[in-house]
Amino acid sequence: MPVPFELRPDMPEAGLSASENGLGHSEHVEQHLLKDAAESGHPMVLPDHVPKTHLAMAMAELARDKGTEVYDAVHDAIFSAHYGEGRDIGSKSVLLAVAEAHGLDAAEVEAAWDDGAYDERLHVFARLALSLGVGTTPSALLCNRLIVGTRPYGVLRQVMRDCAREPGS
Predict the structure, then answer these.
(1) What is the pTM assigned to this prediction?
(2) 2, 51, 62, 156: which sits with the fewest CB atoms below 10 Å from its CB?
(3) What is the CATH architecture of 16-132?
(4) What's the pLDDT score for residue 109?
């Protein structure tokens, strides 16, 4: 199950410039990401703007409560808005457009933001992640093994093969 992790909870509401705040990727990593995206047929941009993601994560949790299909569609659309189109997913108007395009009621989304309906769940997820040693994204817990950072597909495949061999898995 995908679990949200707010990497920078103290991020200013307006977000930050990656280049001005030392938050960018190395040129090597950027080239690798763009190449992988192109090879898989997904357009990708790496915007300089690093958004505050709390509202997006709260909206995704509302979508999760609507069912797996809704959650998957909303999660993918948020990701695509940022990395596919370079849009600011910290912006309420961008997020509301995503919500409406995927069947979420805008008034319900805004109410969840205003009353903090998903804040406690997001805090629980953050405490869980920190207790497991997660301090960056992406991270994955696979068969009680924490995989931190991007890893080649072969590494993940081997972890899953090892897991399948473990008793009780």
Answers:
(1) 0.84
(2) 2
(3) 3-Layer(aba) Sandwich (3.40)
(4) 98
